[in-house]
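User: Hey, quick favor. My workstation is busy. Could you predict this chain's structure for me?
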Amino acid sequence: MLNPRQLTLFQAIAMTGSISGAARQLGISQPAASNMLGRLEETVGFVLFKRMKGKLEITPEGATLLIEVTHALDVLNTLEIRVDQLAKLECGMLTVGALGWVSMGVLPYVISEFMREHPGINVSLQTHASTKVIDAVLAGHFDIGVVETPSPTPSLRITPFQVNLIAVLPNKSDLFELETLTPQHLSGLPLVTLDRRHATTQRLVQNFNLVGAECNIVAESHLFSPALIMCQEGVGIAIVAEHTAKQHQIESHRLKKLSPLIPFPISVITARYRPRSRISHAFERYLMQYMENISIRC
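Assistant: No problem, here it is.
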């Protein structure tokens, strides 16, 4: 059976024109090189070199074999390089799925940091509703996902976090002096929130109803960023994630805590019964560290 070391010696002899030259190139003794060439000729069943006028000359059969050997060694060298790259996380593909505001406001920063550390990795960021991200993770289409916290299921690894929403005041407001806003402070004032059917908006309305305050929602958005833009334009007070507000460089005096708190539960998810790449594990460590910094671990 052919082995790469014998083939490398064969190629070296053809290039140098001598066994001694090939031996020096490969860092082995001349007797060892002669023995290796003899075993290779026994294996292939024909003579590879003949001595002509004191020099080794490749035979026609050897010349034909050399073409294939050169190609095979090139392929093997490429394979070795790729194996090394995989081991060092210098190549590969990662697909990440997330709900809208995480995909826009969190993951671009995590992915950028990860790719700076591992520049050979290709990353695909997909934005979908949480239910679609969960299905894609379970099907193996996404390596990792960030979603609104789902119900526990044996098929998913779920690491929950919690982001508390805040109020962002327009450029002109009578509430700048307050550090924390209650439903009484906000009663009747125009609010910009997530969709009315969203759990956080329902929680907001419930907090108002409990104290008899008027929850005056004048605009809704599926994402936090449009809500912030509408707030900037004077439409109303935006109820958003603090992290998103800071990324929009909103002045600190316009950011107000809410009481009672309005939590937004999110989770990092992976498929429990599917094999995961080393890239996926490495990226998850980056993501977890980032999430720890912007949220509360549940």
